Amino acid sequence: MTWRRVLLLSCLSAVVLLAGVKQKIFMQESDASNFLKRRGKRSPPSKDEVNVENRQKLRADELRREHYEEQRNEFENFVEEQNDEQEERSREAVEQWRQWHYDGLYPSYLYNRHHI
């Protein structure tokens, strides 16, 4: 007998809560029809429309800025790698030249020459 009362009370409280929530979720028919109406071409946009457009523009600007920053970073990394490779190649070439022209003296004879 008591479980029936508990079930009945819980069902009634659920119905009351749903009735209160329904009023907050759904809007009146007149508001809904006005909400979906398009404004005329010459009428000024509402504040909400302006805010939405501004948010979209700001988001597009942010995405564009991020994209260009990423492209710039990739290019800078590429250039740095190219410079490092070129530096290493020239260093190796200089080292090979020094090994080929080494005369047994350190520093080599060419740098110890006395100019008269």
UniProtKB/TrEMBL annotation:
According to the UniProt record, one GO cellular component term is: extracellular matrix
Q: Which residues form a coiled coil?
A: 65-96
What family name appears in the similarity comment?
Belongs to the UCMA family.
Location in or out of the cell = Secreted, Extracellular space, Extracellular matrix
Keyword annotations of the record: Coiled coil, Extracellular matrix, Secreted, Signal, Sulfation
Its recorded name reads Unique cartilage matrix-associated protein
One Pfam match, given by its short name, reads UCMA
- Main localization of the protein described in the UniProt heading: secreted
Traced from the root, the source organism's taxonomic lineage reads: Eukaryota, Metazoa, Chordata, Craniata, Vertebrata
Q: Supply the source organism for this entry.
A: Microcebus murinus
Basic and acidic residues bias located where?
Answer: 45-55
Q: Which GO biological process categories is it annotated with?
A: embryonic skeletal system development; regulation of osteoblast differentiation
Q: Where is this region: Disordered?
A: 36-55
- The region annotated as signal peptide is 1-18
What does this gene product do? May be involved in the negative control of osteogenic differentiation of osteochondrogenic precursor cells in peripheral zones of fetal cartilage and at the cartilage-bone interface.
Gene this chain is encoded by? UCMA
